[in-house]
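Table S7 (text form). Paired inputs.
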Amino acid sequence: MKKYFTLLFLPLAATLLFSCSPPTATSECDRLYQERNGEVIYYGDKTNDLIIHLTSEPPNLHPTSRSHANRDIIVGNTHMALAVVGSEGELVPELAEAPPEVSADGLTYTYRIHPAAKWQDGRPITARDVLFSYKVAVYKHTEAPAAGTYNYFLKDIVLDEADERKLSLVMAEKYILNPYITSNNSVLDQAFFDPEKKLDAYTFTEMKEPEGAAAQDQALIEWAAGYTSAKYGTDLAFLKGGAGPYEVVEWEQGQHVVLQRKRPFWSDALNDERYQYYPERMMFKFIPDDQSAALQIKQQAIDVSTQLSTAAFEDLENSEEAQCHYRLIKTDRFSIAAILLNNRPDGIAHPRIFDDKRVRQAVGLALPVKEMIRTYFDSSTKVVNSPVSRFHRDYNTQLPDYEYDPQAAARLLDEAGWVDSDQDGIRDKLIEGKQQPLSFKLSFSNSQQAVSDMVDRIGIELKKIGVACVPDPQRGISGLLMEKNYDAVLTALSMSSVPYDFHQLWHSSNWPSASNFTGYSNPRVDELSELARRELDPEKRKLMVDEIQEIIYEDRPALFLFNPTAKIAIHKRFSNAEVFHERPYLNFSSLKVVKANSQ
C-alpha cells in the first residue's frame, strides 16, 4: 500500500558526473554512484533486493489486527485499499481507478475499481470484495480496531447492479474523516477468506448490529473465530488473500520476514508510476540493538532503516563507510513522545495518584524536558505542548512551552496533601484509611538505550521532589494501553496528515473500552471534540481545536514531551529515495536500482 506525501529529500550527497561508462573518480564513492536525469546510476554489484531494518518483530501479520506499528509497515506491501491519503489530505487512487465522486450533500462516496485490478489467479477484484472487507471490519466477533468508527459513521455500502466494479459508501453524518473512512481499509479476497460466502447471508447494516441476528449467528461466530485465529497472522499458507504487489514467502521467527514480488501482477502493464513496484524481494530484519543495527549498515548488510536511534545515527554520521554508501537523513515526524498518565486508577492494582490534576502538573514541572532532549536526543528534536505534532496543521502554535520549576512542583504536591510523613524521602498520603507512598511505575518499550537512559533520568529528577518513579521496561506496551493496565506509560502518539480527531483519545465516552487510554474527562473537551469532528469549515474548526488544546494543556492528562525526528539511512544505489513526515517515512516499494550496464 503506497503512500503519497510531501517529498523532503532528493539529492545524492556526492559530486556527480555524467557519462555512459564509469568516469575517472577520486574515490570509490564517486565511482559507484553517479546521477543522470534525476536517477542514480549504480556501478556496483548489489541488486534491487531490499533489506530493511525494523527494531522489533510484530506478533502477527493478520490483515486487520493493526496490533503493531511494524505489522502495518509489512502488511502495507501485501495489501491495498481503494485509495491512500496524499500530502494535502486528498485521496489518491490505489485499487480505485479515480478519486471518489462525492454527492452534493457530502455523504456518498462512489468508487469504481480499476479495470485492470485482478487477484493473483486472474479473477477480477470486484465491489463485492470491498463490501466483504468492510463487513469483516464492522463485525462484532472479528474485533477489528476500526469497528467503532465504521459502525458509527459508515451507514451503508451500495453495489451497482450494472457494474460489478462500482460501489457507493454512504456516510451517516458529516465528519471530518469521512473521506478517509472510505479509503482506509484493506480490500480482502472473499474467495480466500470466506469461500462458502457465509457473510453474504447478511447485509452490511445487519453485520454492524452488535446484538443483531448476524452477531448471534453461530455459523458466523465460528467463521470469525477461524478468521481471527493465529494461522491468519503467522502461518505462511494463510498469509495470503491481499491485493498488494508482494506476498510473504518466509518468516524466521525473531530474525526476519521476506516478501516476494508477485509475478505477474495486475499493474505490470500500466504506464503509471503509482503502480510501479521495483524491489523483487524485501527482507525485514528485526534488530532491536542500536549498535548491531549501525554495524550492519556499515557492513552494507542493511539497505534501509527508518528506525535508527539518535546514538546509532550519530555513529553512522561519523563513519566514513556509512557516509560513502548511504544517504543519512533526518525528517520531522507526525508523532509525539508523551507520558500517558492513568487518570482513573482503581486504587488497587494502580494507586490513586494521577487522578489529581495537581499531581500531574507537579510531575510535569519537575522534568527538565529541554535539557533531557539535548542529552538523549539531538538539536533537531523540538518540545511539544499538545497531543498534536507541532508540524501538524491542527497544532495550537500559541501554547507556551511548559516550564521547568521543581519548587512550584513541590508546592503543588504539598497543596495536594502529599508530604513525607515518615521521613523516608518519598512523599505519602492517607487515602481511604491507608498510607499511600507517592510511587508509580513508568512503563516503556526497552528497544532503545536512549529511552532507557531518559527513564532513569526521569526517576532521578522526580526523586528530588519526593516522588518515586520505578522503571518498568516492557517488550511492548500496546497491551497495557488497551487494557488501561498501567500507572504511567512512555510512548509515541502517532498521527497522519489528516485532520486530528480529538474525540478518539480525549473524549470521556472512549474510556474504558475504547481509545481514551488515560481515562481523561473534561465536559468542555467532550463538547468541543463532538463539534470539531463535524465542523467542515477550517477556520471555525481551528478555533475549536485550539481551545481543546488550551484545556488539555492546563489539565495535563499526559505529559507531552517532544516531537521526535525520524533518523533514516538509505543505500545510495537507490533512486526514488523521497522521505516524508508520516511512518514509515519512505515508500520501500518505490526504491529503484538503475545499473550502469542497463543504460
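Next pair, protein 2 of 2.
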Amino acid sequence: RLHASSGTTGKQIVVGYTKEDLDIWDDIVARQLVAAGASSEDVVHVAYGYGLFTGGFGIHGGATKLGCTVVPVSVGNTQRQITILKDFKCTILACTPSYA
C-alpha cells in the first residue's frame, strides 16, 4: 500500500508499506488504543481522512485488530459527524485535536 505526506513544505513524500508493515502498524495502534482504555466493546468513529494521508487507515486497522466496531466517516460535514456519533452510539472519536 502507498501513502504520502501532504506536501505542504514542498514535494510530497511517498512511502510504500508491505503486508508485514501494515500488520505491525495495526498491532501498534491496537496497543495504543488499549493503553487509552479502549476495548472490543467500543465503537470508533474515524473522522481522519482516508486517502494518501495515513490517519484514517492507521486508526481503522488498529481498531479493527482490537475487535472494535469501526465507523469510517472520514472528514468534513460537522453536523453529519455529530448525527452519526449519536446515532451509532460511538464511544471513541478519532480525529485531529483541532477538529474535536
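The helical segments are 19-35, 55-66, 78-87.
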